[in-house]
Amino acid sequence: MNKVIxxxxxxxxxxxxxxxxxxxxxxxxxxxxxxxxxxxxxEATADFISCVSFGRxxxxxxKYFRQGLKIIVSGRIQTGSYTNRDGxxxxxxxxxxxxxxxxxxxxxxxxxxxSHPQTSVPTPAPSMPAPGAASADGFMNIPDGxxxxxxFN
Length: 153
Known about the structure:
The protein is mostly beta strands. The chain has a single domain, classed as CATH 2.40.50.140. It is built from two helices and six strands. A five-stranded mixed beta barrel has the order 1-3-4-6-5. The radius of gyration is 19 Å and the shape is globular.
């Protein structure tokens, strides 16, 4: 089984390109800085992991992901190789993203951006909260009368 789940911050805005042809496909590439659990000499260390997403996932990254944003991705590791201009063989490893989501609230993201001015965090367009969406206090709003619908009363 080839499955990977990562949580980290975007090191820069995603680079998005579209394939040629009639049915252009979005391809987004970005790098995640994933903190290591253990510190070396008291210093925090991180791994920088290349990610690539396709189609709607790439379009979502283009629209909402910005440098410094903390996200969670899941997908598979893919390796490859190519020969560069100097004739040297270069080996690559990247995560092909299947799912991605925000890993922190808008408020936490704004706080991070304020304390790290070199980064920016996206500001999604305002919208009506969906049923079950989190309220200002961070707890989910549960609709009235839901008890009758639950299978485990």
